[in-house]
Write a structure and sequence with these properties.
alpha/beta, TIM Barrel, 8-stranded parallel barrel, binds 2-phosphoglycolic acid
């Protein structure tokens, strides 16, 4: 049984002075009956304030990135041990970091290794560019990203790989680059097909049947108005939300819908 997850990526928004209030407001507005995992990922400098604001609410805190080494001469960077007590989740390989910081699949795989070893729950981002989709290469690109990440993740046996990724609660976020921050979302059907591609690539990459246990989120212009289209797809387990995650009304709508899905899926199992 895969969890339903709604993760807020605040990107480079909020300050330590205003993040706590926003986090507390969102926590209060997103209390739902269904078993939804809620995560807020603020900027690094806001992590402590958001952690304090969310204490006792059931909403987890995530970082937006982490370095692939544990310590060293890496000016301006943040390592997994530094996040202990501040964050329990981490976003890895977001397309804005691939674009602005030159992150590659190999680097994302090394970060994933660090995150898993350090007990953080990773949200690993993959997704194609518009030109790649238009050229009919979206599946090949995303499958290749998964393969590259898994290769860099481990030199263990396939059984180790599967155990590491499933026991760490690793989540994949499918975020088509052309849908991020554009107001142009993918269709539920396209996201679902890509979730199948992702799980197939993970199965082939060493996870075997345990790839089915990996949650896949959709991200890219998710709103309260369109979240239903994605959660109607059994292959999609939630959303990574950017712009709308700064708006309590939007988050209330998104998590309410996720709560219904989580309840329905739990019911189906009984
Ligand atoms: P968006 O961002 O919801 O603003 O499109 C999603 C993301 O980048 O994770």
């Amino acid at each position: 049984m895969r969890p339903v997850v709604v993760a807020a990526n605040w990107k480079m928004h909020t300050t330590p002075a205003d993040a706590a209030e926003l986090a507390a407001t969102i926590a209060g507005r997103t209390r739902v009956d269904g078993p939804v995992e809620r995560v807020i990922c603020p900027p690094f400098v806001c992590l402590a304030a958001v952690r304090d604001a969310l204490a006792g609410t059931g909403v987890a805190v995530g970082a937006q990135n982490v370095h692939h080494e544990l310590t060293g001469a890496y000016t301006g960077e943040t390592s997994v041990p530094m996040l202990v007590g501040l964050a329990s989740w981490v976003i890895l390989g977001h397309s804005e970091r691939r674009r602005d910081a030159g992150e590659t699949d190999a680097l994302v795989g090394r970060k994933l290794r660090r995150a898993v070893e350090g007990g953080l729950r990773p949200i690993v981002c993959v997704g194609e560019q518009l030109t790649e989709r238009e050229a009919g290469r979206a599946d090949a690109v995303v499958g290749g990203q998964i393969r590259g990440i898994l290769e860099a993740f481990g030199d263990g046996t396939p059984a180790d790989l599967a155990a590491d990724l499933t026991s760490s609660g690793t989540v994949i976020a499918y975020e088509p680059v052309w849908a991020i921050g554009t107001g142009r979302n993918a269709t539920g059907a396209d996201a679902s097909a890509m979730a199948d591609t992702i799980r197939r690539a993970m199965a082939d990459g060493g996870l075997g049947s345990r790839a089915e246990a990996i949650p896949v989120l959709y991200g890219g212009s998710v709103t309260a108005a369109n979240i239903g289209e994605f959660l109607a797809e059994p292959a999609i387990d939630g959303a990574l939300v950017g712009g709308a995650s700064l708006k309590p009304d939007e988050m209330a709508g998104i998590v309410a819908r996720a709560g219904l899905t989580a309840e329905a899926r739990a019911g189906e199992r009984e």
